[in-house]
Structure formats: structure tokens, C-alpha cells
Amino acid sequence: MKNMKKMLALLLAMIMTFSLVACGGSGAGNNEDVSKPTPTPKQKVQLDTTMLQSAMTDTEDFMAIAFLGYVEEDFADFDEYFDSKGFKDQFHPFVYDIDKDHFVQAEGDELYCIVPRYEDDTVTISEWIVDEYNDWQGEEGNVLYHAKNDGHPILVKCNISEIVPNILITIENSNGYKNYFVPYISAMDGYLETYLDDEYSFCDFTPYDLIVPGWDGWDDGGDYWGDDWNDNEDYNAFDIVYLSGDWTSTVYTNDDEYLDAGFMFDGSGNVEFAYGPSGDAYQLYYSGSYYLAEDPSLPENAVILELYLTENNTDTYPVESMYTVVTFEMYPYMDTFGMTYETGDLLFGNEYDTYYELSPSVG
């Protein structure tokens, strides 16, 4: 029996150390004598959170956050869900001891665990509203949770989908400094991401190996959600269907003028593109197709645009056809895309910058 206790304690210590790898932590504070008796559940809660907070003090991480999966269950049934994922034996067991006073329910089924950096941090969780009334830039809504000088871990259930995050986490330390986080799961690679307003980062202690089918490591460069996540073996994390809709952008040219542009992607490979002087009607209209490049010599998720001039309302002779390679970066928290020119014909001929931000067309 005594040897079994030693082995159990050693196994728990190893699990806690491995869970900090993604945070850049060195496992500081993990100097427990394995000959000591196995801690009680309450002691394990204190030990686990202390280890996370200790790891964050050695980095610039302002909080630790884990995505725990898509959970339809109510709070009362979380223990059953945790058991089904093996959290008790293979993850931080303190998640079982988070009480309902430290649980926040917003719209959506993504479950997150939040651990502030310091025990005396103040945590506020508010609605995060992104719509046409704030130009899709996002703004704080009603407060859902507020705990002053309370570094207790928190469970948050939120986010309607990967591209519609709906909570804002504010962490305020004892010096009054605030940092803001809008967590979501990246549709590009399936990893936890968050919108930050400054240089501070977060410690990701998500148990990917427990909640993601087929997950086999950080650096395999493959489909992190595994073959079971999508029936298509050639599944690419970025799909042209994500671009479906009408988008607008404003571009500054080398002629010191601004151009307004519009893109219409139909989701099945057809695109329309038009632009003209800022504040005026479009003058040049193009139609064509767009598709994933699938060329190993091009950046991952490169998209090819083949465009042909259909209408010219200027006195000039613009390019009649374009073959352009671009890449896209998704910003789910703002419902926008970043589009970067890679090679081929310039879309506007003489743009000053070849990075374009696409926002939903309103009206």
C-alpha cells in the first residue's frame, strides 16, 4: 500500500509538470517529496493553482486559460463530463472543486477554465458584442461576473461558434493595471486563441490530448483536430466557404489617394471585385473565380483569384485580367479577414500596402 501511494504521488507530479509545457513553464514549485502521503482533494486544488500561478510569474503570461471542450451539460453535470474525458487522473483535478459561485454561463457551449496570475487579481467577465452598430469592432456589454481580489479559478461556458466569441475577460492586478482577453478556438488550426490589446500573453493549459480526436502533438503541421473531426482526409483548416458574403476594404495608393473596394465571395468559387475612389461609386468591376492553391511552393492556405474586367467607368485602360495569389487570416472576434498579397498581379495596380482588411459590407 505504501509503495502504491508513492507511485500515485509521482504520477500526479508528472502530470502536473507536463500540463505546463505549452505555457513555457519550467515546473517551478514541483518539488514535492513523493514519500509524503497523497494530498486530500482540497490540498490538490491549492497545489495545482499554485503551480500554474508560479509558472506565470516566470513569464509575461497574465492568466492561464484552458479550453475544456464543447459541453452541452449543465453545471450540475460537469463532473460526469470531466470523468468521461479522464480529467481526474490526467488533468488538474481542481476543476472538479470549482463551485457554482465561480461559474459563468453565456450563450454557447464552449467551456473554458480561467486561472488569474495572482491570488489578489480582480476578475470581471462581460458580454462581448460584435455587430453593425459598433462597425464590427467589438465592445463591452453587460457584466456577467465580478470578483474583487479573488484569484479563484473560474469556469466559463460561452461562444456560439468559433467565429462568434461573446465574452470579454478583464484581469486587474493590485496595481490597477488591466488586461483584456476575448477567448476563442481558431478555425485555422483548432488551437486556443485570444484577442489581446497589448503585449501580454496567456498560458494555454488546454488538455488537447484528452479532448481532441487524433491529436498527436504541437508541431506535426497537420490537422490538429484529427481525421475523426472531419470525414475528408484532405481537409484543410481554412476553407473557401469561410469567405462567403460581401466584404469591403479601403486601400491607400502610392498616388496619395484612398480607394474603396468590394468583394463578393459566393462560397462555391465565384467572386466579384470592384473598386473606386473613396466615398464615390465603384468604377472598375471584375468577375472570376477563387480556389485554394494546393501548391507546396506557395504559403499554406494560399488562395488564387482569377479576375476578368467586366465594366470600366474610367478614362483609363486598366488591366483586363488578373491572376493573384493571396492568403487570409481570420479575426473571429471582429468577424473580419486579413488578406495579404503573395504573388501575381496587384489588385489595385499601385497600392502602398499589400495587406488588406476585409470587413462585412453593411447595407
Count of distinct structural domains: 2
User: Which structural class fits the helix and strand makeup?
Assistant: mainly beta
The fraction of residues in strands falls at 35-45%
Oligomer: single chain
Mean pLDDT: 76
In N-to-C order, the SSE pattern is HHEHHEEEEEEEEEHEEEEEEEE
The neighbouring-strand order within the major sheet is 11-12-13-14-15-16-17-18
Q: Which stretches are low in confidence, meaning pLDDT under 50 for 5 or more residues running? A: 1-22, 24-47, 217-237
The count of helical stretches stands at: 5
Termini separation (Å)?
A: 71 Å
Helix content: 10-25%
Question: Biggest sheet: strands, sense, closure?
Answer: 8 strands, antiparallel, barrel
Describe the global form: elongated
Could you please describe the fold and organization of this structure?
By secondary structure, the protein is mainly beta. It has 2 domains: 58-229, no CATH class; 240-360, Lipocalin, CATH 2.40.128. The chain contains 5 helices and 18 strands. The protein has helices at residues 2-18, 41-57, 78-85, 87-90, 208-211; strands at 61-70, 103-105, 110-116, 122-129, 139-147, 154-158, 167-172, 178-185, 192-196, 201-204, 245-252, 258-265, 270-277, 284-292, 302-312, 321-331, 336-344, 355-360. Strands 11-12-13-14-15-16-17-18 form an 8-stranded antiparallel barrel. It is elongated. Mean pLDDT is 76; it is low at 1-22, 24-47 and 217-237.
Keywords, separated by commas or semicolons:
363 residues, mainly beta, Lipocalin, 2 domains, 8-stranded antiparallel barrel, 14% helix, disordered N terminus
